Amino acid sequence: MNQVKRAKVLVVDDDSVVLKAVTQILQREGHPVVAIDDAVEGLTAAKDPTIDVVVLDIKMPNLSGMDLLRGIKAERPDVEVIMMTAFATVETAVEAVKAGAYDYLTKPFENIDEVSLTVAKAAERKALKDRTRALEEALTVRSQFEDLIGQSPQMRSVFKLVETVSHSTATVLIQGESGTGKELVARAIHYRSSRKDKPFVAVNCSALTETLLESELFGHVKGSFTGATGNKKGLFEAADGGTIFLDEIGDVPPATQVRLLRVLQEGEVKRVGANEPVKVDVRVIAATHVDLSRAKEQGKFREDLFYRLNVITIDLPPLRDRPQDVPLLAHHFLKLYASKADKKVTGISPRAMEALTCNRWTGNVRELENVIERAVVLTGNDVIDVEDLPPGFQSAPQADSAVEVFSLAHLPYAQAKRLAMRAFERRYLSALLEKNNQNVSSAARAAGVDRSNFRRLLKQYEVAGRSMKPRALKDDEGAEPLEAAS
């Protein structure tokens, strides 16, 4: 079984007894520890990029703990620092927090678990910040494909195809379910082409009646139909030199399909009611959520128009087929709507991200965007939690039901197995605590697990027993399987 990555901790204290005790406490929890008894050497050691958390004493010779704190934060602002002091005062705590400390511990320690739990919380915060930074970097280097976001193999293939076809004038047909971002692909193609300085015109063909659609696309002359009080240019003329995006092309009525075919074949449009055609230079990008091949076979879509449109096809995958893109998209929408709402919402908890990843997203990216916008509006915290998501997201996937396991079937095997295992072990621990009246010691004995290891499991799986302190949520890289802790 894979082990959970433990935070690497630097402990700096000139008191050898305290230094040894803290080191042993943290090593028992599985943390790699660098122990140093000199503040100046500690400042040098803190520059190690693999250090996640620093625990240091306030009172030390040569360099005070406060000066060491400021020096560490100047070099490594991302590192979480915990101060230790035998002379705790409100003023000391305020000064430490203002200088960037995460928390402080009072010596002597009343409970050694307080040391490991405080370090665990600091490590969780560091991991969440690391994840957020990684997502921001991924968003920054996504080759500037407008708002097209993804790192999955499917989306990388789409990006490559977009880059290739952008430099041609060929007609492109984009296929995909509603909400997958077909217009974003069309815009990406346009703004990478030689036509980028010319108009990009989008029209939803399913939103208009046949008469209005023809008038919008091709224009009309005065008196051609009731309400036509003057001459009007159509969208093809408006897009001259640029690109026109025909969304939901599969819903275009047969008569309009004939007129579209003429535009593609002859490069000219005829306004409704006019006799003379008008030449246009327009690249056509069409999109549909229906299977045009089947519609063609059923006689619902002209075969000749189909082949004119289907020169190059781009298939957009549904979001459920690329769950690895969910965190990236969720973070993108989080930044977008937090900025719009002027709220300091900076992250998404591991349990919330787990619930988002498990969802099947029948509404695709558009549905995910709506869920994140709702969560940003509703949350009162700086991190979106599972309680901020719609009710259907608040039940974690369960491993003992065929229906619930089916909900994970769209995920890659390794990811589905990890999520199912986490759900099972979380439920097992909750049930064990309930059976033992929330008593951690009794539950640990019933499980046949050492009490300290059992407490660590409860922390990893976000299950709280009696006398356990409230905690921040862990990073969602997975948790150590129960049998590995026994």
TrEMBL record:
Q: What does the entry list under GO cellular component?
A: cytoplasm
Q: Outline the extent of the Sigma-54 factor interaction domain.
A: 148-377
Q: Has the keyword ATP-binding been applied to this entry? A: yes
Which subcellular locations apply to this protein?
Cytoplasm
Q: Which residues carry this modification: 4-aspartylphosphate?
A: D57
**What UniProt keywords apply to this chain's record, in alphabetical order?**
Activator, ATP-binding, Cytoplasm, DNA-binding, Nucleotide-binding, Phosphoprotein, Transcription, Transcription regulation, Two-component regulatory system
What InterPro entries is this protein classified in?
AAA+_ATPase (IPR003593), AAA_lid_NorR (IPR058031), CheY-like_superfamily (IPR011006), Homeodomain-like_sf (IPR009057), P-loop_NTPase (IPR027417), Sig_transdc_resp-reg_receiver (IPR001789), Sigma_54_int (IPR002078), Sigma_54_int_dom_ATP-bd_1 (IPR025662)
Task: Spell out the protein name for this chain.
Answer: Acetoacetate metabolism regulatory protein AtoC
What the entry lists under PROSITE patterns is as follows: RESPONSE_REGULATORY, SIGMA54_INTERACT_1, SIGMA54_INTERACT_2, SIGMA54_INTERACT_4
Read off the Pfam families from this record. Answer: AAA_lid_14, Response_reg, Sigma54_activat
A molecular function GO annotation: DNA binding
One GO-annotated biological process of the protein:
phosphorelay signal transduction system
Q: Record keywords: Lyase included?
A: no
Where is this protein primarily located? cytoplasm
Q: Which residues form the Response regulatory domain?
A: 8-122
CDD domains per record:
AAA
